[in-house]
Design goal:
single chain; 181 residues; three-stranded antiparallel sheet; 4 helices; binds guanosine-5'-monophosphate; binds magnesium ion
Length: 181
């Protein structure tokens, strides 16, 4: 099944499944049998998070955050973060789960805010990493796939709130990228 607005499938359902399972193994090897607070970045991370945590042998608590950046005037980096679910991160082993790392600005802002809540450890896992687009010095502790600089949809990623439920990651046609409805 491919959508007309999807130019090609970049990562098939099967490749994602295999890699997500491996990632869970890499994560479990680092945390041992400790409890993790998984913090999913809404909305894009919800599919990845749901698949990933079902492969983790650890006890997991959940929190979700919504990050809103307001680019007003001279202060473009201002980010407000709202946490729901497990909000007590103090002394805990926190794993931020994000769909894609692009310029790195969002994740950098999120980590700065979460650090103030005093977690014992703070790590990040991203499914996709657009390495060539980075504008700030940040890398994720666990990465699913390095990906090229193209607009990607599926497996949680949207275009105008569509395509999040595609079971694969695809490249959106550039003609479609301009449309908003
Ligand atoms: P950053 O602050 O790293 O530039 O932005 C990361 C955010 O941009 C991601 O969480 C995601 O919401 C969005 N983003 C970056 N690249 C893509 C992409 O190819 N497709 C979609 N749907 N969102 C993207
Ligand atoms: Mg996002």
């Amino acid at each position: 099944m491919t959508e007309p607005d999807v130019e090609r499938v970049l990562l098939s359902r099967e490749r994602i499944e295999t890699r997500v399972c491996e990632l869970a193994g890499e994560i479990a090897a680092v945390y041992g049998d400790g409890e993790i607070v998984a913090v999913g970045v809404l909305t894009g991370a919800f599919v990845f998070l749901a698949d990933l945590v079902r492969h983790l042998p650890n006890r997991v608590r959940f929190s979700f955050l919504k990050a809103d950046s307001y680019a007003t005037g001279t202060y473009p980096g201002a980010l407000s973060v709202t946490l729901v679910g497990e909000t007590d991160l103090s002394g805990r082993d926190v794993l931020v789960v994000e769909d894609i790392l692009d310029t790195g600005r969002t994740l950098e802002g999120i980590l700065g805010i979460l650090r103030r809540r005093g977690p014992r450890t703070l790590r990040t896992v991203v499914l996709l990493d657009k390495v060539s687009r980075r504008e700030v010095a940040i890398s994720a502790d666990f990465v699913g796939f390095p990906v090229p600089d193209a607009f990607l949809v599926g497996y949680g990623l949207d275009h105008a709130q569509r395509y999040r439920n595609l079971p694969y990651v695809g490249v959106l046609r550039s003609e479609a990228a301009g449309k908003s409805s």
